[in-house]
Structure formats: structure tokens, C-alpha cells
Amino acid sequence: MNDFQAIADRVEIEALRGEFSDAAMMRDRPRLASLFTPDGALRMPNIPVEQIGREEILAGGERLQSQLDFFVQTTHPGTILLDGDTATGRAYIQELGRALDGRQGLNYAVYHDRYQRTEEGWKFAERVYEVRYLDMSPLAGSAPHAAQGSESGTNRADATAAPTPATAFTAPASAEQLERVAAALRANGFAAEILDDAAAARTRIKELVPEGASVLTGASETLRLSGIDEDINASGQYDAIRPRILAIDRATGADEIRRLVAVPDFVVNSVAAVTETGSLVLASGSGSQLPANAGGAAQAVWIVGAQKVVPDLSTALRRVEEHALPLESARAQAVYGTPSAVNRLLILNAEPRPGRGTVLLLREAIGY
To answer: Any residues with CB less than 8 A from the CB of 353 and at least 6 apart, and which?
Structure first.
């Protein structure tokens, strides 16, 4: 072949497909989403999943990532057919993995691709995932997990203690544990419901929160990944507090912000941990969202992923410090340029106004 442009195009498209697998393996979901055109599509009819646009692809990928114990993807080169500034092709995939809820398996699949030349280079216009072989048998191996934390900055005497597995605070609770938590919460005055997943919680929120109500959402990965944050703050169906306070000058409008966040009709949030004895634990760097959760809001709804269940309060506090804080600190550093801190803790042991607070316990892991 003496068409150097065609050779260059093929090399770039092959690199694009390799970049996709690398981003998936390195858990770099923003990079993976950037490999698509702005209106690109990722379709997986076997699951079924359809994500249109980079934002949906990013959100869907992060939600999936939060549910995985480990995942391995290998891409094998397939055909590429060039047609000017567009191309089609196929890539052959081998994957194995295990979810936090115990689902696991091995599969072989095909990506049916459409590519588009852009100013940024070749991008995916569409990837359609077709499973050709699926084996859900238990995998013989497992992913090696490092211990939580490190010896640096700790007492040397503690270094001999048994390490805490990285999965200790990420594995979802069993059905029996969720039932125990729900029963304990109800005994403590909370309303408690067990739902299958974040999609069910998203639907339930629309039933619990009437249109037009003033609603404060917490800075929660659970809300963001589930789409609940967008439903409340961008739909126009509610008097959303967070967009209002973001539009207020922090220097001159501090009092107005304080009043807005303290007494909304509803607060919708997640928690850092929920105990099998029926307590909720929330942590905050600024403390601004805690008054509404504590009792300022007329109604409260907390969406809680199954991995946040812990046996008791001391374990809940460990989960805050050892698991949630490092993840939130990394997010805050990326977004705000400064790490987070546990400057305020709110522990809700009971609800003195029965029915005010509703806890939606999910069978799936989401958020951190």
C-alpha cells in the first residue's frame, strides 16, 4: 500500500481502540468518554445500555466502575474500512471481571464501530457491543488487594496489626444485612425502603418529592452517578437550592446562603455509613449541608448504597476516615484545588419526628 494517508488513518484508529481499553483498565472514565465525538454513542443491547454523548458515557462508566471488584479487558485488532473522513470497523474483545455483588464471568464480544475524523483526530462516532460468548461460572482467581492506608504517618506499633482489605468498605451488604438495617432504622423512627438499584431510587425520589418544593441536594457522588442530582437541579421541576446558592456571591451573600441551605422543604443526600443498629453518619468539610440533614429541612431523603452498611458506629467512623475521606479529598483536589477534611460529623441515631426522614437502601453499590 502506497497511500500514506490511509496508513496513517489506520494506525490512528487502531491507537484509538487501544486507548479505549487502556482507559477502561486504568479506570480513567473521563479519558474514555473523551474518545467519543460530542454526540457519540455507546450501545450495549445485550445489557441493555445506551449512552449518547460524552456526559452520559462518563456517568454510565463511573457508575459501572463503582460496582466492580476487578475488571480486565483485552482488545484484538479487527477490520477497518476507510471512507474519507469516516470509517467503520470491528474490534474483538475478551473480558473477565467480578462485581461487588458477586456477579462474575468471562465473555468474548465484538465492538461494531463507526469512526469520525475530527479536529482532535479520529474519534468513535458509535460503538455497538455484541456478546458472542458468555460464561458466568465462578472465576478461580481474584484480584490482589492492597491494605487500606499505609505505614507512613502511623504508629509503628500499629504496623503489625492485620491490614484492612481494600474491599472491606466496598463490598455490598447481604440481603439479610439490609433487612436488619431497615428494621433498625424503622425502630429508630426513620422510614426505610429497600430498592434494587439507583434507577429505582431515582424513580422513588420523584414520587417522594412534590414538584415545586424547595430542595437542597448534598454534594454526593451517589446523587451525581444516579442522575438524581441532575433531576433535581436541572429539570426545572423544583425550587432547587444548590443552583441558587452557586449564583450568589460568597463574600456579600453569605447570610443569604446560610438561610437557604438551613431550612429547605426537602434535603436529598447520601451518607458515609449506615449501621446495622440503625444510625446514619454524615461527614462534611464545611458543615454547610448538615443543618438541613439534622432537622432544618421539613423532610429528608437519604439514598444509601449497599456497600455503606457497617456493623456499628466505631466501624462507621473508620469508614469515614479510611475510605470516604481519601476519595472525597481526591475529588475536591481535582475540582476545587484543595483537599477535603472531616471537619464536621453528623450522627443521626434516631428520628424524633417519625416519618420526617426516609432512607432508601439500595441492593447495589454506588458512590463512596
So the answer is: 189, 295
Residue 59 grid cell: 456517568
CA 325 vs CA 34, 151, 222, 321, 351: distances in Å: 28, 17, 15, 5, 26
| Helix-strand-coil split of the chain, %, nearest 5 | 35, 30, 35
Cell of 120: 482532535
Task: Please write the tens of the pLDDT for every residue from 323-354.
Answer: 888 888 887 777 777 888 999 999 999 999 98
User: Contact, 89 vs 77, CB < 8 A?
Assistant: no
Amino acid of residue 198: A
Identify the burial level of 338 via C-beta atoms within 10 angstroms of its C-beta, where 0-12 means exposed, 13-18 middle and 19 or more buried.
exposed
Contact 291, 344 (CB under 8 A): no
Q: How far apart are the first and last CA of the chain?
A: 52
Alpha helix ranges (H) inside the chain? 4-25, 29-34, 54-66, 175-187, 198-208, 221-226, 228-234, 241-246, 254-262, 290-291, 313-319, 325-336
Instruction: Tell me how far apart the alpha carbons of residues 148 and 164 are, in angstroms, rounded to a whole number.
Output: 6
What is Dmax (Cα atoms) for the chain? 79
Give the closest residue to 305 by CA, choosing from 289, 327, 336, 285. 327
Return the pLDDT at 67: 76
What's the rounded Cα separation, in Å, for the pair 121 and 119? Answer: 5
173 φ/ψ angles, rounded to the nearest 5 degrees: -70, 155
Share of the chain above pLDDT 70, in %: 92
CB atoms near residue 196 (< 10 Å): 10
Neighbours of 160 (CB within 10 A): 6
What type of residue is 348? L
